[in-house]
Specification:
Layout lengths: L3 E5 L6 E9 L3 H9 L10 E6 L6 E10 L10 E8 L1 H12 L4 E3 L4 H8 L5 H12 L3 H11 L2 H25 L9 H31 L1 E6 L6 H9 L17 E7 L2 E7 L13 H16 L2 E7 L6 H4 L6 E6 L18 E4 L8 H16 L11 H19 L3 H19 L5 H9 L6
Parallel strand pairs: 1-6, 7-9, 7-10, 10-11, 11-12
Antiparallel strand pairs: 1-2, 2-5, 3-4, 4-5, 8-9
This protein binds guanosine-5'-triphosphate, potassium ion and magnesium ion.
Guanosine-5'-triphosphate (GTP) binds next to helix 8.
Length: about 450
């Protein structure tokens, strides 16, 4: 018999209400002992006084809920206590529950693991739940909810069903070579395989967007020293994150903030000012900062390249501008005239702004938001494959289908179709899951 586990399911720290969950064979006992009453009606909130069953001391008064298994989140008997969310109440509850027979604190993800083991959620739904709990922006929430609601599982199940049907035909043809199967069966199977393959390839093509949406787009702020990079980071983050100073070479480490741009998650990175490595004044720390800055600029999805509009731009920095660059002239508050005209650059846009007066900042934010939206909105396709492991499994299935289409013997075609089915089975966690489970459940917090 498995242990009974308990944990607070709402976040740590002071709160109006904290939800404590307990799941397993002793959940009913815990509920009866703490309330000193028979079990309440299932799934109905009941106000109850909660006591330490040993000392009889009143711990708190709160709502209790009783979810008898298997119709519960974990599939086991499960109870919830909604208590006042103070350290003292939560600690008293945890200590009291820990003294009950067979009850132990839950590991991170333990409740969801039980739900998975009970077949309440498949692996993609578990991942969707983890993503929903981690979601920072509206678009991330939508992607996570769709996966939690079985959006990916259904797609995979449909592919599996179609593959299984072709396989069944093929196996019939192999087992009963003399039977009169409709003559076009093999041809039709082949064209269906091509159709399936094309669908899978479409999903693989947009999968990187799904993965990117979970992690966020990377934007690096680059430019010469003192151009106002850190000032821009602070302005966009609307917080005082990075040190701003008159000294050139203030920023050395890469400083990151998370932003929500029109519902899309973005990691904005401030970097060290770029200047010629041969500069005698450079100390080794600043040189290392510049190395990191260049690496960041190369890896970024987008670059915000910023220059001091009162200065002649450093041509060595300008050469880093490319089609993923938004060029910004900063400090236009100091400028009498327009910023200097430049040779035509392959950049996305050129904007004039002042982090000091705030001029041009809202245009920059709109431009950035549009650019980020455009990166994600590829032909309106909403990616269903959101993790590298989904993509790899479907890629394996496509390779198997390619082999199936070329195989010369029906037996070999059938074997490849079986391999394709197996690869798809990995996505929802039907096969080959053992190594995956620990990795996936580790993502969860305690109490989920
Ligand atoms: N007048 C004016 N000064 C600005 C503006 N933006 C930044 N500054 C000033 O320019 C100086 C450098 O700003 P930072 O934000 O530290 O520049 P940085 O590019 O991060 O500099 P490093 O980290 O040293 O490369 C500071 O004294 C800022 O107050 C602006 O729009 N107008
Ligand atoms: K500076
Ligand atoms: Mg700086």
């Amino acid at each position: 018999m498995s242990d009974t586990i308990f944990a607070p399911s709402s976040g740590a720290g002071r709160a109006g209400v904290t939800v404590m969950r307990i799941s397993g064979p002793h959940a009913a006992l815990a509920l009866e002992r703490l309330t000193g009453r028979p079990l309440p009606e299932p799934r109905r909130a009941t106000l109850a006084a909660l006591y330490d069953p040993e000392s009889g001391e009143l711990l708190d008064r709160g709502l209790v809920l009783w979810f008898p298994g298997p119709a519960s989140f974990t599939g086991e008997d499960l109870a919830e206590f909604q208590v006042h969310g103070s350290r003292a109440v939560v600690d008293a509850m945890l200590q009291t529950l820990a003294r009950l027979p067979g009850c132990a604190p839950a590991e991170p993800g333990a409740f969801t693991r039980r739900a998975f083991d009970a077949g309440k959620l498949d692996l993609t739904e578990v991942e969707g739940l983890a993503d929903l709990i981690a979601a920072e922006t509206a678009v991330q929430r939508r992607q996570a909810l769709r996966q939690l609601d079985g959006g990916l599982s259904e797609r995979i199940a449909d592919w599996q069903a179609r593959l299984a049907r072709h396989l069944a035909y093929l196996e019939a043809a192999i087992d009963f070579p003399d039977e009169e199967l409709p003559s076009n069966v093999e041809l039709e199977a082949l064209s269906n395989i091509f159709g399936l393959r094309a669908e899978m390839a479409q999903h693989i093509a947009v999968a990187p967007l799904g993965e990117r949406l979970r992690e966020g787009l990377e934007i690096a702020i680059v430019g010469p020293p003192n151009a106002g990079k850190s000032s821009l980071l602070n302005a966009l983050a609307q917080r005082d994150v990075a040190i701003v100073a008159e000294t050139a070479g203030t920023t050395r480490d890469v400083i990151e903030v998370r932003l929500d741009l029109g519902g899309y998650p973005v990691t904005l990175a401030d970097t060290a000012g770029l200047r010629a490595a041969g500069d005698a004044a450079l100390d080794p720390v600043e040189m290392e900062g510049i190395r990191r800055s260049r690496a960041r600029a190369e890896a970024a999805d987008l670059k915000l390249m910023i220059f001091d509009a009162t200065d002649v731009p450093d041509p060595a920095v300008l050469t880093l501008a490319d089609a993923d660059t938004l060029l910004c002239w900063n400090k236009i508050d100091l400028l009498q005239d327009l910023p200097p005209t430049l040779p035509r650059l392959p950049t996305l846009a050129t904007l004039a702004l002042s982090t000091k007066s705030g001029a041009g900042l809202s245009e920059l934010v709109s431009r950035l938001t549009e650019t980020v939206e455009a990166r994600f909105a590829v032909a309106g396709a909403a990616p269903l494959l959101t993790r590298a492991r989904h993509r790899r499994a479907v890629e394996d299935a496509v390779l198997a289908l390619d082999r199936a289409a070329e195989a010369e013997l029906p037996e070999l075609t059938a074997e490849d179709l079986r391999l394709a089915l197996r690869a798809l089975g990995r996505v929802a966690g039907q096969v080959d899951v053992e190594d995956l489970l620990d990795v996936i459940f580790r993502e969860f917090c305690i109490g989920k």
